[in-house]
Amino acid sequence: MNVARKQIVLVGAPVDEGAGQRGCLMGPDAYRTAGLAGMLEALGHTVADHGNLAPAEVGPLRAPNPVLKNYRAYVGWTRALHDKAAGLGAASVFPIYLGGDHAMAAGSVSGQARAAAARNRPLFVLWLDAHSDFHTLESTASGNLHGTPLAFLCGLPGFDDLLGSPLEHTLKPENVEILGVRSIDREERDMLRGLGVGVSDMRRIDEEGIAPLLRPFLERVRAADGLLHVSLDVDFLDPEIAPAVGTTVPGGASFREAHLVMEMLHDSGLVTSLDLVELNPFLDERGRTARLMVDLAGSLFGRRVFDRPTRSF
């Protein structure tokens, strides 16, 4: 079991322009209020909170598709998070990006990919989500930009505005594993199949179990000497246990399935950065979802069953 103590950096990304329902901008402070830093310190890690980022200033931009919502804000947040993540990825720290809707991953993951390339190591991404977030700026019908970051990160065309030039360090699609998905639009499905992105939906999890699906991916990361970024969306979880999300899809991961994923990730020792996204405290029940997400982070950082306080949810 990996018991290394880590230098953890918390970065707030109060992004909610990418979602259809506002409120995710309160997410970073909800994680802080739920005791994320204290829990990590109790496990022996060192925690530095860098506060909340602000979007970068961008000049006039014309959205390439009129249906897109808050396009300039998406560009500003992507640039700010990319620069921050590239710096943290080059340092001997473990960054946790506190969201904020999933549009923020366009910046956090692209920055981590840039840093990984500078170290001559591949970046792998585990995308824990009810959705694949693989729309391009042209294929999206809703215009909600939290549905597009993974397409950008895998190098699909049309995203040059996000960093002001084409993305240099794209993810290899075969290095991406989407786990727990249960809502994929037809256009996304066609692109995912064509590119070879790993996708395990909830039916496959029901049939095969979550551990047998995660284990081969972790083995591939290890064999490639890769760095692993985990992007955990609240809607990966079943809404019965995690109601604080604006994109609820029934039938998500159970409490134990989610903790097992985090425990396996901890035991692997492969994870080097983390997103916690789509927490909308406005929709929560007395902090229930925020506390659960903090507990899941605890499992990722080494908290065992014996370490957990008994608590009624």
From TrEMBL:
<feature type="binding site">
    <location>
        <position position="235"/>
    </location>
    <ligand>
        <name>Mn(2+)</name>
    </ligand>
</feature>
<dbReference type="InterPro" id="IPR014033">
    <property type="entry name" value="Arginase"/>
</dbReference>
<keyword id="KW-0056">Arginine metabolism</keyword>
<comment type="pathway">
    <text>Nitrogen metabolism; urea cycle; L-ornithine and urea from L-arginine: step 1/1.</text>
</comment>
<dbReference type="InterPro" id="IPR020855">
    <property type="entry name" value="Ureohydrolase_Mn_BS"/>
</dbReference>
<dbReference type="GO" id="GO:0004053">
    <property type="term" value="F:arginase activity"/>
</dbReference>
<keyword id="KW-0378">Hydrolase</keyword>
<feature type="binding site">
    <location>
        <position position="233"/>
    </location>
    <ligand>
        <name>Mn(2+)</name>
    </ligand>
</feature>
<feature type="binding site">
    <location>
        <position position="131"/>
    </location>
    <ligand>
        <name>Mn(2+)</name>
    </ligand>
</feature>
<comment type="similarity">
    <text>Belongs to the arginase family.</text>
</comment>
<keyword id="KW-0464">Manganese</keyword>
<dbReference type="GO" id="GO:0005737">
    <property type="term" value="C:cytoplasm"/>
</dbReference>
<feature type="binding site">
    <location>
        <position position="129"/>
    </location>
    <ligand>
        <name>Mn(2+)</name>
    </ligand>
</feature>
<dbReference type="GO" id="GO:0006525">
    <property type="term" value="P:arginine metabolic process"/>
</dbReference>
<dbReference type="GO" id="GO:0000050">
    <property type="term" value="P:urea cycle"/>
</dbReference>
<dbReference type="GO" id="GO:0030145">
    <property type="term" value="F:manganese ion binding"/>
</dbReference>
<feature type="binding site">
    <location>
        <position position="102"/>
    </location>
    <ligand>
        <name>Mn(2+)</name>
    </ligand>
</feature>
<dbReference type="Pfam" id="PF00491">
    <property type="entry name" value="Arginase"/>
</dbReference>
<dbReference type="InterPro" id="IPR023696">
    <property type="entry name" value="Ureohydrolase_dom_sf"/>
</dbReference>
<dbReference type="InterPro" id="IPR006035">
    <property type="entry name" value="Ureohydrolase"/>
</dbReference>
<protein>
    <recommendedName>
        <fullName>Arginase</fullName>
        <ecNumber>3.5.3.1</ecNumber>
    </recommendedName>
</protein>
<keyword id="KW-0479">Metal-binding</keyword>
<feature type="binding site">
    <location>
        <position position="133"/>
    </location>
    <ligand>
        <name>Mn(2+)</name>
    </ligand>
</feature>
